[in-house]
Every structure is written in C-alpha cells, then in structure tokens.
Design goal:
Layout: E1 3-7, H1 14-28, E2 35-41, E3 54-59, H2 69-84, E4 88-91, E5 102-106, H3 117-121, H4 125-141, E6 147-150, H5 153-163, E7 168-170, E8 194-198, H6 210-220, E9 225-229, H7 236-247, E10 254-256, H8 262-270, E11 274-277, H9 286-293, E12 298-301, H10 304-310, E13 315-317, H11 322-332, H12 336-351, H13 356-370
Parallel strand pairs: 1-2, 1-4, 2-3, 4-5, 5-6, 6-7, 8-9, 8-11, 9-10, 11-12, 12-13
Helix pairs in contact: 1-13, 6-11, 9-12
Length: 371
C-alpha cells in the first residue's frame, strides 16, 4: 500500500480552497487501496471527508501563518512527509516543499509571473518582504518538483521561459457547479438597477479602489449601474475602502454586502447582471468560469491572465481608467443583442474547460506515474 500525501496547509480560501475541496470530495467517494494523508491547518472545514483511507493531519496553528511559510516549507513539511512515510506528495501550497519525496507541485501563485509594477508599489512593506522572500524560495527550489502543473497553457509557457522548467503540464481549473442548500435563500438586499458583481476578498492587486471612481461617474451621469462588492472589512485597507464609499457618498451606487459563504455565491450570481473584475493579477480566477456558467457577461482587465481564461468571452478595459471601464459597460449592457452574444461566447468557452471529474483523473494519473 502506497502513502500519498496531499498538502493543503495554506489552501483555506479562494482558488486553493476550491481545488482542495473539489479534489477531496471526489477522493472521498473512491474505493481506495492506498493511504492518503491530508496536511491541513487547524480549523480547516474538512468534516465531509469520511473515507477510512484518508487521514487528516492538522498542523499546529503557527504552521499556517503567512509569516512562517518560508520556514515551514523549508524545514518542517519535509520531516512531516518522512514521518508519515509518504511516497508521493501532491502539493497545492504556495511554496515548494524541501523534500526528497516525489512531488507534484500545483502552481497557483501569480506573483511569480508577470506582475504589474503597481501591484508591488501598492503593497505594504511587510507584505512586500514576505512575497519577495517567497519568490526567492520559488526560484531557488523550482527544480525540485518532479512535475509542475500550470492552470493554463500561457502559464505553462511562461514558467518554462522564466525558470527553465522542463516538465510543466496543464490542468485547467474547473468550475464545480453547486446549488444552494435546500431552503437557503439569503437576502443580500441588493439595490434595483443593473447589478455588476465584483466578488473579491480585499487585496491590493484586486484594484477595487477604481470602483470608487467608476461609481462617481455612474452617479454624475445618472446611470442605472449598481456595483456589488463582497469586501470583509477585516483589515485597515479593507475598512478604508468601505469607509470611502460613505465618505464619497457613493452608497447609492456601491453596495458592499461583506464576505459571502461559498455555498451562497451561486445565489449571488443569479441575482446579478454582469461580472466586473478590475483585478491586476490572477493565476486562474474561478469566478470567470462561474460567471460563464450563470450566464453573466464578463467585464474585466485587459491583462494576460484574463485573456488566457476568457479569450473572446469578455469585454476588456484598462483597469486604471474608470472612464474606459464605463465605456466597456456602455458598449454591451444597454444592447440586448450584444449582451447575449457575449454570454453565448462565454458558454462555448466554458464548454472547452474540463470538468472536475476529468481533472481528478489527471491528478490521479500523475500520482500513479510517480509512485
């Protein structure tokens, strides 16, 4: 019997959590011969894992701290893999584990790619220091994994060019179509009008401050657009954004509903009219695929990551220019034919992506290849 480790220590939100939960939900339903050890943080919501061949190894709280990540991945996780007797590790963490165990590294950290200078410039000093340290470690240890997995062919090519990697394979992210729990119908208290949803946790690279300028244009031109944000004001910068909505008297245009649980996001999509994403950096944003599934036209930044996922299924704009964002909206939203045409391209684009069942089979194939 082989022992396969699955490192999800830092995969507790966003795309990492989506990959973690989707993989484990499918693994949980398998009749397993091998032993699986999931390395997770304290408090990870993994109660759905009930398969007797899957063990959950919860690491001490300190191990999931962002500040501690370089130390944990360099000195701790390798020893954990040795202790559990791992033959292979599927690593979906931000960093590469320093280990002699055969490793599949799922790359999902866009800071190691083509980062717009403004992203670095707007970063707090401590965050800049942490990310630069992580970037140094990635560059130093990128040769260690036996297989590197990229989420798009564009990223595959960039990793080969930037880091001289040879075995980089592609597994596109996939949308897991979920429905709301029976009887669940949250009241988001959304305003009437054309609702533009921007589902994002607050980070500087999400560039949501430009929405304030966009909202001012909408208000002054008396347009029917309403912007829905999902910012949890749990940091000083996030609170400043929420406060700015009030200070600039934009509450009529911007409705911040706070963080939305994953099992309620699908209801939110269904209550909105379009996706608005002025982000400056992503590796693969699952919200693009989710929006395609729910029939929302997509308006997003004219950046490499967006084009690599959306192709022709989005209307692109200059993310630094509120007037250009408004132009892109006005070219599509008032025109039913233009809107439906964009949605139709989105449906075709979505159909070109794999299902999670197909992705799961690919991960298992790579694991078997190394073990």
């Amino acid at each position: 019997m082989k022992t396969i480790a699955f490192n999800a220590l830092n995969s507790n939100s966003g795309g990492g959590k989506s990959i973690r939960d989707s993989f484990l939900e499918l693994l949980n339903n398998e009749v397993l011969v091998d032993r699986y050890v999931v390395i997770a943080a304290q408090g990870s919501a993994l109660g759905f894992v009930t398969n007797p061949n899957i063990e959950i190894l919860r690491m001490p709280g300190l191990c999931s701290w962002t500040l501690a990540a370089p130390i944990i991945y360099r000195f701790v996780l390798g020893r954990v893999l040795d202790r559990v007797g791992a033959d292979v590790v599927l690593n979906i963490g931000d960093l590469i584990i320093h280990t002699t165990v055969k490793q599949i590294y799922v790359f999902d950290w866009a800071y190691a790619l083509d980062v717009h200078p403004k992203v670095w410039a707007d970063m707090k000093s401590i965050d800049l220091l942490i990310r630069k340290a992580k970037l140094w470690l990635l560059k130093r240890y990128f040769h260690r994994p036996d297989i590197v997995i990229a989420q798009t062919h564009f990223i595959q090519n960039r990793l080969k060019e930037l880091y001289s990697l040879k075995d980089v394979r592609v597994i596109n992210n996939a949308v897991t179509i979920k429905t709301a729990k029976k009887g669940l119908s949250p009241n988001f208290d959304l305003p009437p009008g054309v609702r533009l949803v921007c589902p994002a946790v607050y980070y500087p690279h999400k560039n949501i401050e430009v929405l304030l300028d966009l909202a001012s244009l909408i208000m002054h031109q008396n347009l029917d657009y309403r912007i829905v944000t999902t910012v949890n004001p749990d940091t000083g910068a996030a609170q400043r954004f929420v406060d700015a909505i009030v200070e600039r008297r934009l509450q009529y245009v911007i409705k911040n509903i706070g963080q939305v649980p994953l099992d309620q996001m699908y209801i939110l999509y269904e209550q909105c009219d379009a996706l608005l994403m002025p982000t400056l950096l992503e590796s693969f944003s699952i919200v693009y695929l989710e929006s395609m599934h729910h029939g929302l036209p997509i308006f997003t930044s004219n950046m490499w990551f967006a084009r690599s996922v959306c192709g022709e299924a989005a209307k692109y704009f200059d993310p630094f220019n509120a007037e250009d964002i408004l132009r892109s909206l006005n070219e599509v939203m008032p025109n039913a034919d233009a809107k439906e045409a964009l949605v139709a391209v989105g449906r075709r684009q979505l159909a070109s992506f794999p299902t999670w069942e197909e992705n799961f089979a690919a991960y298992c194939e790579f694991i078997n290849e190394l073990s």
